[in-house]
Fold:
Amino acid sequence: MPSSYSWKSFALFSIFIFLSGALVGVGLRGKVVVPSISEENVAIQEVALMIDRGDGHMRTFPHLPLFPHATVFGILNKASADYSFSLDATSYTGIGMFVKGIDGVENGDDGRYWQYWVNGEFAMVAADTYPLHGGEVILWKFAQEQEVIQ
Structure:
């Protein structure tokens, strides 16, 4: 009999929790609840980085830790240092960082250049000005110049 009693108590407790959550959800309708940021939350935030050299060779880094004030360029630069691949970039005043080469592949080869996408969207700003918040997928691709649609 004690196991049947335990099962009933568990079921009633589960229903209570479910209904409490539903009522709280109704009361918060239309409001965004943002969890507080703690060291534990920050420590587990990550981004993914993919580097497509345009020659069939792709380097993938699926779990790079996010650091404070991280940018697309900052993540690429840190990955370059941590995983020993070359990175050639120049900073232009008023514009930002221009990536000229990654992993030994340099801009201009067959009219191809390094470009980047974040979560599948072509980025229109310098990589050092694109902030990251965690969960993004960054793709650096050596490809023909991206056509801009106006």
Observations:
- Residues 2-27 form the longest helix (26 residues).
